[in-house]
Design goal:
heterodimer; A: 364 residues; mainly alpha; ABC transporter involved in vitamin B12 uptake, BtuC; 2 strands; 69% helix; B: 362 residues
Chain lengths: 364, 362
């Protein structure tokens, strides 16, 4: 008898664990980490080195994950809100990053593509790019909320035009910023060995957590995502809330764009942030958020983003070509969505129920 | 949102109101297409007066017509498939590798193309129809999978040298009486490629399928309202599955036609084809919400997009980015027009149904 109850509590703890949303990305992270540990323990090695200026900097796979995962994690924040409110995803984020990055360079370099000194302060360039990226978000937002077009189709417009517009902003030239202060955002602050993008991402997380804690935005977004009509009858304005989520995503895009162009102090219109929309959607899905809108969990999405970067780094380590990466990630996406599909879940649950009485009998 | 429902209250709204949605949107597209062509002939002259210019548009877009037809089928059932461009790239690369590196036959390459299309259709259709997963996610993954696989099959782009294939690729069907004289006064025959014939056969077959077969009508019913379709005894899941399966097969055929046109394999082939296919369907009067659509409209959608690109480049805006921008703005305009039309019709239906209710109450 006592054994039976013990068994029950153990299984209920496991089911409770399963129910926790953050379980999925955590489990994925553990599996990946274990896999890497078995294949090659040196994967986790972190070394302290010095760059040419004598400043200390850390290097290693883990550092590169938290470094290159930053843009993705920032985007995942915005994408989670958009997914929750509008029941669809924004696939134009990569193209929007190209636009906002292009704007930053345009403002910094002026008409000359290789100036000796900056034509405007970096902060001004960033603010202008914020406005442009928010305008892109607003464009998508209007199409989705006012014209009621499916989010993925509405954002398809910018997805196609975005990189063309980015090239057009700079007249298809490739401006290069030579000023070293600009590369701080994608590199290292002198004297601090941890890459700056990580701190920028951290700042973004703090801001979004404060916003969600002290405003009703999170609640409203969930309610619109769960049932638009009831939210409207309760006095919310669903169109406005959807619109706001797209503008917030625009802000995230601007920050990610700044980091991206700062990394190489230049831009490549057709390659910058390529396929990042896929990763961002994957991060949201991996975080256990329903892609059909409704409840969301930002921290799970952020963790999901880092897990994906972990996966990317692992694949790179096994010498997978960067062009072939999408194929592997696509398989992961399909596995994830299949496992999280309600029909499959029911079947698995039924299977478990069948197994459990059998086990209880054995114990008895 | 079936067509009948939308056209209720016909008498109140004159000529435009009496057209069903798909016909209204299709008529707009055809009128815009003819107007643009007339503008091109009289405004831009020379090139556009030759029949060959038109045939060239067809030659270059035969594959897109086939892909867009598949897209239309899926969109009529209320879904979407964005993997078609990636599929076309994978098909052309696989066929190219098979023909050149394994010295295969053209028939074998065709079978491979169909096989790839079939596989994509089966998997995506099963996931979407029977496991009830969002079509956009599944086909987005499909698109990335196809693009990634293309690189895995072969990294570097290359031209196919296989003799039988080159012969097939260069087969030209001459259209009598439509040729023109070049600057030296030699007569040049007007021609189309084999792909165009394939595309036109596909369009005709699908037109008949959608208009007069039971399964074809089921597509509209499922897209219009799943619940009512289910109550009418239609197997909704099987119909949805069939739509994606057909789209996959058409993706395979379209991919091979594309391959016949370009004659090379490359991971960047058919970039953005999915977007163009969606845009063409929408411009041709297919509604994203499902239940409304027309293959002939899609054909004109493709032609309009191609024509606008030709016009844009011939008036001097020939930088690469203009193509993307014009395509996107065209799609944007038609999307907005669609959504406005839907909203207005809904309103009109509401207002016309109210007096009827009042009468019934008496």
């Amino acid at each position: 008898m006592s054994q039976n109850t013990k068994n029950n509590t153990a299984s209920s703890i496991i089911t409770a664990m399963f129910r926790k949303q953050i379980f999925i990305p955590l489990a994925a992270l553990l599996i990946l980490a274990l896999f890497n540990f078995i294949m090659d323990p040196s994967f986790f090695k972190i070394t302290l080195g010095h760059n040419s200026n004598g400043d200390p900097l850390l290097s290693g796979n883990i550092i590169s994950i938290i470094d290159y995962g930053s843009e993705l994690a920032i985007l995942a924040v915005g994408m989670t809100l958009v997914t929750a409110a509008s029941r669809g995803q924004d696939i134009s984020v990569g193209a929007a990053i190209a636009i906002s990055g292009s704007v930053v360079l345009r403002v910094l370099c002026g008409t000359n593509s290789r100036p000796d000194e900056l034509q405007a302060p970096i902060i001004v360039a960033f603010i202008i790019s914020c406005f442009v990226a928010m305008a892109c978000g607003a464009f998508n937002g209007v199409l989705v909320s006012v014209f009621k077009i499916q989010p993925m189709v509405a954002t398809l417009i910018l997805f196609t035009a975005g990189r063309s517009i980015a090239a057009w902003i700079n007249n298809n030239e490739l401006p290069v910023v030579t000023d070293s202060t600009f590369s701080v955002f994608g590199g290292y602050i002198p004297g601090i060995p941890i890459p700056t993008p990580f701190f920028i991402a951290l700042a973004c997380f703090v801001v979004i957590f404060l916003v969600l804690k002290f405003t009703t935005l999170g609640l409203y977004v969930q309610s619109v995502g769960i049932n638009e009509e009831t939210s409207r009858l309760n006095g919310l304005n669903p169109a406005l809330i959807k619109f706001i989520t797209y503008v917030i995503l625009g802000l995230c895009v601007a920050v990610a764009g700044l980091i991206k162009v700062s990394r190489i102090s230049s831009i490549n219109y057709s390659v910058v942030a390529k396929d990042i929309e896929m990763d961002a959607i994957l991060a949201v899905a991996l975080g256990g958020n329903a892609l059909g809108g409704g409840k969301f969990n930002i921290s799970a999405s952020i963790l999901g983003a880092y897990v994906i970067q972990f996966l990317t780094t692992t694949l790179y380590k096994f010498q997978v070509q960067s062009d072939a990466l999408p194929a592997y990630k696509a398989v992961v996406v399909i596995l994830l969505v299949v496992l999280s599909a309600p029909i499959v879940r029911e079947k698995i649950a039924a299977l478990f129920r069948k197994l459990r009485p059998a086990r209880a009998e054995q114990n008895g | 949102m079936s067509q009948k429902f939308l056209t209720a209250g016909k008498s109140r709204r004159g000529l435009i109101g009496s057209l069903s949605d798909t016909n209204l949107l299709m008529s707009i597209t055809i009128i815009v297409f003819i107007a643009m062509y007339l503008f091109a002939i009289f405004g831009l002259g020379s090139g556009f007066q030759k029949a060959q210019t038109f045939f060239n548009i067809l030659n270059a877009n035969a594959a897109l017509i086939i892909l867009a037809c598949g897209m239309t089928l899926v969109m009529i059932t209320g879904g979407i498939d964005i993997s078609v461009g990636g599929m076309a790239a994978l098909v052309s690369m696989s066929s190219a590798v098979y023909l050149d590196m394994h010295s295969g036959s053209v028939w074998g390459a065709m079978l491979i193309s169909l096989g790839i299309g079939l596989a994509f259709g089966l998997v995506q259709g099963y996931l979407i129809a029977y496991l009830d997963i969002q079509p956009f996610i599944v086909t987005l993954a499909g698109m990335f999978f196809a693009r990634g696989m293309t690189t895995i099959v072969n990294t570097n782009p290359f031209n196919v040298q296989n003799e039988a294939f080159v012969k097939l690729k260069e087969t030209r069907i001459i259209i009598p009486g439509m040729g023109s004289y070049n600057k030296r006064g030699d007569y040049i025959d007007a021609y189309i490629e084999i792909g165009v014939i394939v595309a036109l056969i596909v369009v005709a077959a699908l037109f008949v399928f959608l208009k007069w077969t039971k399964t074809g009508r089921n597509f509209y019913a499922v897209g219009g309202n799943k619940q009512s379709a289910l109550m009418l005894g239609i197997n909704v899941k099987r119909t949805t599955f069939l739509a994606y399966l057909m789209c996959g097969i058409l993706g395979g055929i379209g991919g091979f036609v594309y391959f016949m046109h370009v004659g090379s394999g490359s991971a960047t082939h058919a970039a953005g084809a999915e977007m163009n296919a969606i845009a063409s369907s929408i411009i041709g009067g297919t509604m994203l919400t499902g239940g409304v659509g027309n293959i002939i409209g899609t054909l004109f959608g493709v032609l309009s997009l191609a024509l606008i690109q030709n016009i844009v480049s011939s008036i001097g805006l020939d930088q690469a980015w203009w193509t993307g921008i014009t395509n996107a703005s065209m799609l944007c305009i038609f999307l907005v027009v669609q959504s406005v039309i839907i909203a207005r019709r809904k309103k009109a239906n509401l207002s016309s149904s109210r007096p009827a209710e009042a009468k019934g109450a008496k």
